[in-house]
Amino acid sequence: MQFLSHSTIVSPLTRIRRERLLPNDGDVIAKIGQEVSPVQVLARSPLKVTFEVVPVCQQLRISPEKLAELLAVQVGSMVEAGDVVVKKRGFGSKAYLSPVNGVLHSVVNGRLVFSQVAEFVELRALARSRVVNRIANRGVLLEINGSRIQAVWDSGKEGFGTVHVAGETAVTPFTADPINTELSDNVLVTGKITEAEPLEQAQRSGISGLIAGSITADLLPIAQAMNYPIFITGGIGEQGMSEPIFQLLQKSEARHIALFSSPPNLAGQRPEIIIPLEAVPGEDLPPAGQPLTAGQTVRILQKPYYNQVGIVTQLHQSKRIMETGSSVYGADVKLTDEQTVFVPIVNLDAII
């Protein structure tokens, strides 16, 4: 019998493909095959458009039919405030000047309609990568070689910077002590977030991002209010970060790191932490959702061994009665202290 479990990607080196999508239709700038830098704009779209309607025929005392002949710019053209848009020639000549920076959107019943883009969304690459496909009007598919870590929660923001491990261990609480303005380009790594003050101090210091193993539930609204991205790799509580993830981030000290948020309308895609590295042929990631096997590294999701990491030594083909009275399929897991424990399959997170 085959068993499927939860899974989390923690890969030191793999070939990654990640979609970068605008929140709404826009212009895709990047080309297929293009090598891009972290700051490079891949696509952009207007976040907010306002319209201004001007009864220009009434102001210039001309007929709507005459207006088309007197336009000094074409519909769809960019204009700046003060540009001549309509010019009335001959005796008593007059001109109408654009009141805004924007686009002459249309001409309707003798009225000029101007559109203004109040703000643009610019979609940046976040990591050194290559564009392998374009998604019409929405974005691109990037290919990146490097380390990949799936997170379980993010604060809704994205970013990039240089890895700086701020905690000594995978369970070290995040404190304000190591935070200063010299860390403004850094993504900090810590075990767990249990207080609000360090988050606020980090914002004042201008850090580029924060990765933690866990965060207490009461701090989630505060984390979302910060102006930098916060990524949680383990879950809600005080359990800290799992050792495989912490060790990988420790080995990545001073490397470039990118934080890709989970798209709000794309089910199944988790937030990801990516550390670009040199390409190694043949290092594609094995597909997720594969059956659990002996020898698999797993993280335990429930007490009394919550967040501990071990190796599956045996998969039981018959159900076992638990102390609660439930009958479950499970596996023997050898922990780092050499103790072997029985864990229900549903309580295992395969680290792939």
Question: Can you walk through the features of this model?
Answer:
- This protein has helices at residues 56-60, 64-70, 197-205, 220-225, 243-251; strands at 6-8, 10-21, 27-28, 35-36, 41-54, 78-79, 84-88, 94-97, 102-108, 111-124, 129-135, 139-150, 153-154, 159-165, 186-193, 209-215, 230-236, 256-260, 272-276, 297-300, 309-315, 320-321, 327-328, 330-335, 340-344, 348-351.
- The chain is built from 5 helices and 26 strands.
- Helix 3 (197-205) links the parallel strand 15 and strand 16 (209-215).
- 10% of the residues lie in helices and 44% in strands.
- The chain starts with 5 loop residues before the first strand and ends with a strand.
- The protein folds into 3 domains: 6-16 and 143-276, Glucose Oxidase, domain 1; 47-119, Beta Barrel (OB fold (Dihydrolipoamide Acetyltransferase, E2P)), CATH 2.40.50; 297-351, Roll (SH3 type barrels).
